[in-house]
């Protein structure tokens, strides 16, 4: 598939869905089953942070009965970003062509994964977006929606990013995209990890597409969001923004030549912030 006559995208290859877990025993079986039903050819990697509730053991049992399911056991809880980075490295070592981020709690609908993969045929990175036309959130209090929208808006304005949902975590990458992002330089451990990857993709000139998704609040278990995570995100985004503006004033800003497209990536230019 060509990108506005400028680039031809190769075949996607086998997809690996990475599902980080910490105390998700109530959810892991259901989410794995839904992914397998939605995209039967995809593989799944459960990256478990030594969950005290036995999530890792349940994942092992799922893997024992299904050669499309794999488990990465980590030594302890080190944050979402660290879990994804470990999963990314595993995926690249195993030769997967597409790497997907997905929450374990059902907030990201596996049934919408084909939409992301279809869009990836003409993109380097696809973001499942709550804030483009057609996207929505379900069962969120207004305060949570305000914080999420506000955080995404602050991030894209501070960092001059063209996508609307900068903080969302339902994403599909081509392997070449991950290989080109400088993963060894990513330091964010918490949810700010998502902002970091988005800004790196734009800076590197990758084509980023947003497609609408429905985000559903978890039914079981506890949210991993905390005050510390929010403080880390605010601090890092502000720091990155100041550095980017300083670099621009000094004539050193060469990133962001390409942006994101919304609603399935129709059109070749950057999306409207």
Automatic annotation (TrEMBL):
SUPFAM superfamilies: Nucleotide-diphospho-sugar transferases. Residues 249-273 are annotated as: Disordered. InterPro entries: DPM1-like, Glyco_trans_2-like, Nucleotide-diphossugar_trans. Pfam families: Glycos_transf_2. Keywords: Glycosyltransferase, Transferase. Residues 17-179 form the Glycosyltransferase 2-like domain. Residues 254-265 have a biased composition (Basic and acidic residues). This is Dolichol-phosphate mannosyltransferase. It comes from the Bacteria. Belongs to the glycosyltransferase 2 family. One of its GO terms (molecular function) is glycosyltransferase activity.
